[in-house]
Specification:
With 397 residues, this protein is of the alpha/beta class. It is built from 15 helices and 14 strands.
Length: 397
């Protein structure tokens, strides 16, 4: 085949290989659990975001079956046509009730993915500001926040990671009538938590929105799993909260919780909500079960056990030339450095039956390639002991 564009693509792929940046998919042949069958091999996995181990919980699985029997396999249309089911409505009511202690007149809106939720809320905010808006984005924010801000085509500033002084100075010098500080709640690659109480005080001082993407905090943090807002006991009408439903909740989708005026504006203006087929109602039906579990005794028990595993791993020895990131969350990264080194470590671990993905640029800064270890309540203390032994194995030290 002699098509120049294809040849150019092949050369670019060769360059990706030379830099150790080729991404490879592996095929999981079993349910999302601590122990999985992957490409025909049994592996102990420490790289899923199923933090509470609900993805395979019998009650959640049975609710999904029940939802399919009630509503069928798909929604058939967008929410604003005929795709908004009773299951979707009940899920939004449940999530709104969950976050009512943290935002007045709160309402929730569900999306098919967290990526679409972030695009939806950011573009809706820009639409309401009519060209007089500035976004302030943490340097380590998730790609969906970065892309959502870029999609608005409005001015934005990137502030130093978790730097309150930087945020304060930028807000003080900004002349826009609408200001939006945008941050992850729990940062997905480092595992640290944003300084939200201080950020909220700055936002209230300057009349700014505070948009929090709590994909990795929802269900995991807080006494009843309401994430970073409950963790810090925050309450404000200026808060906008995005939580995902495919991580700790174990199913799929996402939601935005905010004041009812903003949510209604999103129903009218969020293109990633309006112009897409609604998620299958069966998923929403299953989420009614998992979210109730998150808020109840089962969720509390699983969060407590997860904390035990976090403490077990965070105090275990690691090779001297690696760096342990400061994290009290289920994300426990170990920075190794070069792409080649982290790929070798990941491969050596897999040879021992332990699956941890190698995270490289551009997901993380250059020369900070790492093992992103994630813990789940479905792991056991014996599983973590096995991980620690594997990490100390001489071939990877």
């Amino acid at each position: 085949m002699n098509f120049d564009k294809l040849n150019a693509l092949q050369r670019q792929l060769d360059e990706v290989d030379e830099k150790g940046l080729r991404r490879i998919r592996r095929t999981v042949e079993s349910a999302c659990q601590a122990h999985m069958m992957v490409d025909g091999k049994p592996l102990l996995a420490f790289n899923s975001n199923d933090y509470l181990g609900l993805a395979s919980h019998p009650l959640v699985v049975e609710s999904l079956r029940e939802g399919a029997s009630l509503y069928g396999a798909g929604s058939g249309a967008s929410h604003l046509i005929s795709g908004h089911s009773l299951a979707h409505a009940r899920l939004e009511e449940l999530l709104a009730a969950m976050f009512s202690p943290f935002m007045p007149s709160v309402r929730a809106l569900t999306f098919s993915t967290g990526y679409m939720a972030n695009l939806g809320v950011l573009t809706a905010l820009a639409d309401s500001a009519k060209g007089d808006i500035t976004f302030f984005s943490d340097a380590l924010n998730h790609a969906s926040l970065i892309d959502g801000i870029r999609l608005t085509r409005e001015p934005y500033q990137v502030y130093e990671h978790a730097s309150l002084d930087d945020v304060s100075q930028r807000l003080s010098s900004c002349q826009s009538s609408t200001k939006v500080v945008v941050t992850d709640g729990v940062f997905s690659m480092d595992g640290d938590i944003a300084p939200l109480p201080e950020l909220l005080r700055l936002c209230e001082q300057h009349g700014a929105w505070l948009l929090v993407d709590d994909a990795h905090g929802f269900g995991v943090l807080g006494d009843s799993g309401a994430g970073v807002l409950q963790h810090f006991n925050l309450r404000s009408a200026q808060l906008i909260y995005m939580g995902t439903l495919g991580k700790a909740a174990g199913v799929s989708g996402a939601f935005v919780a905010a004041h009812e005026h903003l949510i209604e504006w999103m129903v009218q203006r969020s293109r990633s909500y309006i112009y897409t087929t609604a998620a299958a109602p069966a998923l929403a039906h299953a989420l009614l079960t998992s979210v109730r579990m998150i808020c109840g005794e089962e969720g509390s028990r699983r969060r407590a056990f997860l904390q035990t595993l976090i403490e077990q791993l965070s105090t275990a020895p690691i090779p001297e030339n690696w760096q342990r990131m400061t994290s009290t969350t289920a994300i426990q990264p170990l920075v190794i450095g070069s792409n080649q080194a982290v790929l070798k470590v990941s491969a050596d671990l897999m040879a021992q039956g332990v699956w941890i993905s190698a995270i490289r640029a551009p997901t993380v800064p250059v020369n900070t390639a790492r093992l992103r270890i994630t813990l789940s309540a479905s792991h056991t203390t014996e599983d973590v002991d096995r991980l620690v032994r594997a990490l100390s194995f001489k071939s990877i030290s």
